[in-house]
Amino acid sequence: MKKLNKKQKLIILISIITIIVIIGIIIGANIMRTNIANGNFNSSNGSSNNGNLLPEYIKKGITLGGVTGTLESLDTSDATATAEDISWGKTAYVKGEKITGTYLTLGMLEIGDYVAYTPDSAGTYTKLTQANTGSSNTSDDSIAQEDLNWRVLSINDDGTVDLISDTPTSQSIYLQGSTGYNNGVYLLNDVAASLYSNKSLGVTARSLTIEDIEKGMNESGLDYVHSYNNGYKTVGETATYTSASYRYYPNLYAQENGSGIDTDTIKTDGIKQSDNYYDSPTTETFSHANSSLTVTQTYYYRSMNSSYYKNSTFYNLVHSGNTYWLASRYVNAGSTYAHFGLRFVDGSFFDGCGLFYSDSDTRGYGRRLRAVVSLKSNIKLGSGDGSFDTPYQFAD
Question: How confident is the model at residue 5, as a pLDDT?
Answer without folding.
Answer: 67
